[in-house]
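Agenda item 2: zinc ion complex prediction
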Amino acid sequence: MGVVENIKEVADLVKKFNDIDLNRRILNLENEVLDLSRDKRRLEEKVEELERSLKFQKTLYFCEPFYRAKAEATPYCPSCWESKTLAVHVLFGRDEAGGSSAWKCPSCKHEYYPPRSRKSLIASASLVQEGE
Ligand SMILES: [Zn+2]
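Presented output:
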């Protein structure tokens, strides 16, 4: 029998004495036990969540420019992972301008270009700066 059931039994026994002050104290005690039980459950859930997160973190490794998980083909956004510890898969498609193909994060909207596209983007950016 758990502590909640025990305190309810004691509360039922105490009612037989018709002692208002004792009844009030037992009721307060019952409420405190219920609060503690809820806090305990919340903390257990938090521990489970942290254990899951820790287990997941151990599967991640950095492979420039992304984080990857063992046995998963789709990489994770490094910006979301490093700033908010959020594991967000990036999606492959056309960039915002509809030009180059890029990996895009659906959360922070950051775009990551494949190595070949990066070289041409850097070269075109250099030409723009020289022309200014
Ligand atoms: Zn992101």
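Discussion summary: The pocket of zinc ion is lined by residues 77, 79-80, 88, 105, 107-108, 110 (CB under 6 Å).
Owner for follow-up: CH.
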